[in-house]
Amino acid sequence: MVRVLPMTMTSSLHLASVAAVRSVSNGRLFSAPNLPRPPLISLRTISQQEGFFGPRGSRFVRNFSSVEAGAAGNMAQASIALKQDEALEWVKKDNRRMLHVVYRVGDLDKTIKFYTECLGMKLLRKRDIPEERYTNAFLGYGPEDSHFVVELTYNYGVHQYDIGTGFGHFGIAVEDVAKTVDLIKAKGGKVTREPGPVKGGETVIAFVEDPDGYKFELLERGPTPEPLCQVMLRVGDLDRSITFYEKAFGMELLRKKDNPENKYTVVMMGYGPEDKSTVLELTYNYGVKEYNKGNGYAQIAIGTDDVYKTAEAIKICGGQVTREPGPLPGINTKITACVDPDGWKTVFVDNIDFVKELE
């Protein structure tokens, strides 16, 4: 879909300044007992006229100005904190769902054939944009308005991409891993890990590669409404990533597992349970802080009720918005885009506009 966006403090401070001046006068901080009552003028102006109050009064004005500035700073911080709390609370209530994952392939027809014949996906729609020299194909296990799907992008004349070391794999839940592997082998597909229990567990898994080298983990499970169940990415600071995805994206930490023998930790994050929805699997390899992202994998798209509030929340949480919220030229679908602390890109799409686009 997307190829590769009160009460004012001035009055309060003014009243506080007036009250403070009266308090000072009652406290007899001035050295001249019969000093005429000064007109109500700016403290900044007074501070520039040391002779007006004398040395002691001048010191008071300077001290009071510092107190005033500190109070203003505290009020500003409180306002920011309130704004942050409101934004994070809205994120939790937002209607979000992982829509699709976008990546680039070198031979669209060959990839479509592999996904439909070997992985059991359906070609949902295809669109060609000749003026921009690219074609998209959407494939998955159900309609886009209710299922997570893949969006393949073919750029005219580009037949190879660097997948890099940061992207991990996609996960597909199947009822019989061994049978699926046999089918893939019969179609000439590449199996990189034979069926068997996962290390340290009982779940039967296998790994295969598509024609462009993207890895798919096959996980043996019972029937599920969301067979395309995982996107795995590697990160350099797991705690930082968890905090970002919880606060900025409103995801829930579903599971965390440390594997000290193999020196890695994985977490599952998403908007629903693993057996019923697609989740983001983040992997931290001990001591590895950075990865090469290549130029093949692009982004995940997530639905939202408000791209403008989404962008605001991302900024409040320290995220980097790479495309300000607003409509896309030509189709008017409102989106915003950002990158996480490791540079992984996500596009948020207006829910209503997304449904209209599918129509």
UniProtKB/TrEMBL annotation:
Gene Ontology CC annotation, any one: cytoplasm
Keyword vocabulary terms for this entry: Lyase, Metal-binding, Repeat, Zinc
Domain of life assignment: Eukaryota
GO BP term, pick one: methylglyoxal catabolic process to D-lactate via S-lactoyl-glutathione
E.C. numbers: 4.4.1.5
GO molecular function terms listed in the Swiss-Prot or TrEMBL record: lactoylglutathione lyase activity; metal ion binding
Matches recorded under PANTHER family: LACTOYLGLUTATHIONE LYASE
Protein's job: Catalyzes the conversion of hemimercaptal, formed from methylglyoxal and glutathione, to S-lactoylglutathione.
The name this protein goes by in its record: Lactoylglutathione lyase
